[in-house]
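Your task:
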Amino acid sequence: MKRTISTMLAAASMLTLGTFSANADRLTILVGYGAGGTYGQTSLLLARHLKEFAPGNPTVVVQHMPGAGGSKATNYAYNAMPKNGAFVLMPPEMIVVSQLLRPKKMKFKANKFTWLGRVFGANQVMSIRSDTGFKTIAELQKNEVIVASTGKGSPTFLVPTMMNGILGTKFKIVAGYKGSKRTSMSVEQGETKGMSNSWVSWKKNRRDWFLDCGAKCFMVKLTQVGYVKEPDLPNLPLLTDLAQSADDKAAAAMLSTAAVIGRGLAYPPGVSSSKIKAMRKGFWNTVNSTTFRTDAKSKRLPVTPIKGAEIQKIVNNALKMSPAAVKKARKHVFPNK
């Protein structure tokens, strides 16, 4: 007899999450990445402050389940996470993109999650080492550059592959690095020559690569992915502006949903409406509290919150992308399939 996806995921994750399922005084935040990046840092920030505002004032803990660019944890959350309101997911920013481009691998429906809200969003910025000698998209259409990735569900994979399809660049992606910290370390050590990362992460963790370095910066910025430009990157083009055809612009816009989803929390399907209402209120009060914002500032994490209901609408609309545009985008990312 075949085991269901729910059963398999639950069994595989029992040691990680099962010990908390019976504790009504505990809220667990599941994160699909390692502890070193902005997902881990933001989840810890929330864990320190949610207790004051979440219903029941629970102890808040963070659990990590890295793998497949956050998709491993998302699959688990959708199919096997307890629905008692004591478990929340910090969804990967590419959750919508992954569902549209890899529907057979993604065992979830992004619009079936219930968003509680986000702490902040940020554009992805694709960058390469300046010592490659390349500074423009035109040069990268003629020359191969090896870039690092955590996995096929992450922006570190999806941004460069989509650029290859839309713009004709020749990025060669090496996947499998565990978290953004190890990925950027591979760039620092010369193992790879570039990667995509959120602008918030770049500024927070690798500021000296981009800022305060004059004309001799370690990295060259190529493009940013989002609906609007980052305020401090007014001259860096958006991928949507560089795309030529309507379908390619739609594909770039699909990638841009990541900037809106950002770092936040969502409930799996099946949580009661009363718990959703209470947690949405608790989340919103948390991210707008003085103590939270002061703590975030001390950690150099931005706070640009959006309410869960608003994110829900954006996710639902993004999933209505035309089948023709999805097919072309899928071909860009997975040209051999």
